[in-house]
Structure formats: C-alpha cells, structure tokens
Amino acid sequence: MVAPRANWKGYIKFGEVAFPVALYTAASSSERIAFNTLNRKTGNRVRREFVDSETGDPVEREDQVKGFEIEDGRYVVLEAEEVAAAVPESDKTLKIEAFIPCDKVDDVYFDKPYYFAPDKMGSDAFKLLRDGMKKSNVAAIARTVLFRRLRTLLIRPHGKGLVGSTLNFDYEVRSSEKAFDEMPDLKIEGEMLELAKHILSTKKGIFDPKQFDDRYEEAVAELVKAKIEGRTLPKKKAPPASKPSDLLQALRESAGMSAPAKTKPTAANVNAGKSRQKTARATASKPRSSGGQHRRAG
C-alpha cells in the first residue's frame, strides 16, 4: 500500500519547542462518482471555453486577467504578479498561540480537517504535545500560511497523532439571529416535554460513520452498472406524503404508548342514554298487534 503524500510540511512550535510535521488531507471527495459533459450528438467530451461577454470571441489564457468590480461594468485589473505579492510570507511554522478547552469553539467555525504526523526527527516533542493536550483536555489555537492564505487552525489529539481543523474567519460565519428570527416564542412543558425526554433517552447511541451510507452514490453506481449491462432499473414509487398529526398523539405513539383513554361521558350524554333506555323499555311493554299474536291451537 502506497503511503499517502503530504499536502504540506513545516513545523509546530509551542514556547521554545519546535518540531517538524507533515500534514495530510483527512477528508476528500475524490472517491465520489464524477461525470463528464458530452455532446449528445457525437458522444465526444465538450470543453469549457472563456468568451468575451460583449463580442462573443474566445479569450486565450494569456489574455485572461483578474478584475474586481467597483461598480456596474467598471473593474480594477489585478495582474497575476500583484495577486501573488499579496500572499503573506510563510516561514512554514504553525505557531501555537493559546491552549483552550476542547469544547470552547463553536463548530460552525470548523472548515476542513487535516491530520498531523511527526516528520523525520521530532517524534518525542510531537508525543509530548499530544499527550499533554490529552491529559489537560485542551486544544491548541495556531496560525500559519497554508495554501497561500494565512489560516487559523484548531489542533486536537486524535488517535496516535493530531488533527487540525482550519477555522472560518468571523466575517465568513453568518449570524444565527436572522435564521431564527421567525421562531415563535413557545414554552413546551408538561406531558409533551416528559414524552420528548423519554424518547430521547430510549434513542441514545454512539456515532459510527460506517452505519451511514451515501445512498445517492450507491444509486448512481447501480444506474451506471445497469446502463453498461443494458438493463433498466425499475422506477421507485414515490413515498406517501406525511400527514399532519397531533403533536401530543405523535409523541405518545413514538414512546410506544397506547391511545389515550376515552374521555369520561358528560352529563348530557348520560341523560341522553337514560332517555333512550326508558324509551326502549316502554316500547317493549306495549301489547303487540294482532299480526304479532300467537295463533290458537287447532
């Protein structure tokens, strides 16, 4: 098995201690099914081409330049050398600025995860940092130039190594206030809350990523296989639309409780029942008609 290729190599530094590390991608979408765009008539692949929005003429790569729009139709032109010069200088060092409790970073700031492993010499210092953070239950905040941008990373112990997650900048994370602005101010209590707590307690488990399948990938793979074999897949029936239900009754059913007991009969219903019984007895005591009398013995 070929060893993974490091995406970045540098140093982690805390205090006056520095040691070399290698960074590896922890999550990748490269294994997902990818499609090519084809010409339906010829079956050939099509290629993307940049054209002038006004003239419609193709624009070759050497004539393409970046521009920042300052107003409608007006741009500031930025040459490739100017953009490259704006990239911060890198000393290839992840400087740890602080150690914080592991649960003190809101995960909406998490961007992409990377694995850190010791590179060449430096395993002792690597293990010292990893084990020290484990025992103290802390994570490290560090910064460095990574992939042409100054980035902040949250570094935590992970198995035999470390995992570092790049963090979104504050201006990149949208406030939740607007998302929750329309939330009604309701107070849930009583039986509803108790049933919800009961359901939550019965559904406790652990996160096992192997239990969750990418059903879209599986369905597309099966579709491709069927096309190759000349088969057609049966059309799936649309799932029945869910019906609006009474929240309390739905909670009761989810908790495995039987339907609530029938409501007690009201006084009006009791009186109506008694009246019907009297009518039935009076009808039964009336003499029967001649057609209904017994025949005389012959």
TrEMBL record:
With LigD forms a non-homologous end joining (NHEJ) DNA repair enzyme, which repairs dsDNA breaks with reduced fidelity. Binds linear dsDNA with 5'- and 3'- overhangs but not closed circular dsDNA nor ssDNA. Recruits and stimulates the ligase activity of LigD. GO terms for biological process: DNA recombination; double-strand break repair via nonhomologous end joining. Residues 56-185 form the Ku domain. Pfam families: Ku. Residues 266-292 have a biased composition (Polar residues). Keywords: DNA damage, DNA recombination, DNA repair, DNA-binding. The lineage of its organism: Bacteria, Pseudomonadati, Pseudomonadota, Alphaproteobacteria, Hyphomicrobiales. GO terms for molecular function: double-stranded DNA binding. Residues 233-298 are annotated as: Disordered. This is Non-homologous end joining protein Ku. InterPro entries: DNA_bd_Ku70/Ku80, Prok_Ku, SPOC-like_C_dom_sf. Homodimer. Interacts with LigD. It comes from Rhizobium paranaense. Belongs to the prokaryotic Ku family.
